[in-house]
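Risk register update: the risk that structure generation would not scale has been downgraded. Supporting records follow, first protein first.
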Amino acid sequence: TAEVAQLRDEMRVIKSLLERQLAGFAWGEMARDTPTRAVLLGEMIEAGFSGQLARKLVQDMPEDMAPDEGRKWLKAAVNRRLRTLPTEADFIDRGGVYAIVGPTGVGKTTTTAKLAARCVVRYGADRLALLTTDGYRIGAQEQLRIYGRILGVPVFVVRDGEDLRRTLADLRDKHMVLIDTVGMSQRDRMVAEQAAMLMRSGEVNRLLLLNAGCRGDTLDDVVRAYAGEDLAGCIMTKVDEATALAPALDCIVRHGLTLSYVANGQRVPEDLHLPNRNYLLHRAFKTGAMESAHSLRDEEVSLAMAQSSSTVAGASFA
């Protein structure tokens, strides 16, 4: 049995090496036959786009394009697939109940305060209520209470699903209710319990916060964990801390999410903006101006493509 297991392991290694070698051959053939596509594919991979999205866009690109024309075409292709909130009226004026969800440390409480400030400016403090379900972090409730006192908005603490339903019923005359939820790892089983509690509480829409500085596979993991019909959109946070925006935009495009806002700092409410497509695309396609430890050499691009080719992605294109 041990010999059979060892033989299987060796066969897996050989299979992986053959797949990567074949991918290298395919890359070399592409570089010879369509050098512009090969160059642009390498640039997208180095910028942080996934192999899945980069391959599809480069394959759909017309063959007779020069590199500069190709870059414009690729930007336009990503732009067409990117869903954004067109105007703030579509969110603030619509009103409703929104739960701010996401992993720990992504900025949920601060983002809740930013959204609350915008609603107060437009509709007044008496038309808004703040809720928090975060009873785990030390000072989490007090932080939201401080924001509530500054804005003149009441803050309610809910303990469980029944408490949430009663509180929302009492607040049904409010124009908007914002719920600051508990931050937890996307791999925590309580994520599903939290989503079920919110769905059972009535017309609660969830807004997912995505850290712009995370790796693409980590963002995919987050979106899969928090996915659901009640997911109204997403907010990209920590844009000022991210060196590349390609992984976050790539994830949003592949999963068909609606990008509602972009947060680029801690100031309330200034550092929250509607998505600026030109700025986001410029940042996403911008490669490093100087060599770094993460810059890919030409011979390493084929290895990266081979690795991404062997990965089965569950996301679908918008």
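Supporting record for the second protein:
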Amino acid sequence: MSNNFQENFGLNKIKGVNIGGWLVLESWMKKSLFEGLPALDETTYCAHLGCEEASRRLREHWDTFITEEDFAWIASHGLNAVRIPVGFWIFGSASGYPYHPKYNGNPHPFVDGGIERLDRAFDWAEKYNLKVLIDLHCAPGCQNAFDNGGISGVFEWHTKPEYIDFAILTLERLAERYCNRKALWGIQTLNEPRWDIPDEILVDFNKRAYHAIRKHCSYENCAVVFHDGFRAERIFDVFGSMMRPPEYQNVVLDAHRYQCFDDYHNSLDNKGNIADAEGPLAKELNKIQKTYWTIVGEWSLGCRGPRTMAEHQAFYDAQKKVFAENVLGSFFWSYRIEDSSKVAWSLRDAVEQGLVL
């Protein structure tokens, strides 16, 4: 396997950031949108407010939370790529997305207009010489039961063929729409499908998604990215069949690596976090990268307890170095959140408060 990233994808290394909380809502990223509502995610947000009010609020959010100035800022700070999460509803009500009982009787609760914002993001990316990874963050029926999957507490995507089929159709439509855009770097088949989805269902989905994307996007110009499905210890056994040319080319594995969601990492101080990154994490990623092109599609400075900016800087530098040396690149989560005090998750606020990229 060649590891010449520039030859295969047009970049030396990805130094990217996620545009999270924009075209897919997560309540913790912009709490003011959810204030006074029982909603926990974009599905219940739209279903509760109704089409007219949800449209008014979301369109204002789309047009103010991320603007051209943000893309200019990203490029001016040495980053070269953005990962943009989208939901299966990105093409609007006319796309015919499947119904779920959480819609509360409205067959099409989601707000139309997201696809035009994604078009605009491509315009900005091309203006500022940034690459774009489109990430299908939410599938019908939800693939992980998290708010970032579109419906918190629901885990049904893998149980109905119509849900799986529509996710593939959405990927094909995205490929068809953006295949000729200069900024397109890749399309990610699905974000964080849960660990207990049967292997055979996830592998079959990724294979079908690959071929749907390749109907429009050549392997020379577009990576097909799939998440490891939290199967790191079994990654070679599970996904080996879909990583091999000539049938599968320029396939990239996405491994999300945080240090704040388990008891072990939450027991560490800053020196422990750094040691974990430089030791076990580096070794794991190096092993995977020797077989599969790999990115770390999400990472952060999230960790136990408050940290000084100096501690954040040391942790940031350690992770950045590990990713630069062991994988094709990475995308920090995320570019911004509403609460500017949460610098562990908001790259722009961290920089404005002293972090050096």
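The chain is about 40% helix and 10% strand. On this basis the risk owner (M.S.) recommends closing the item.
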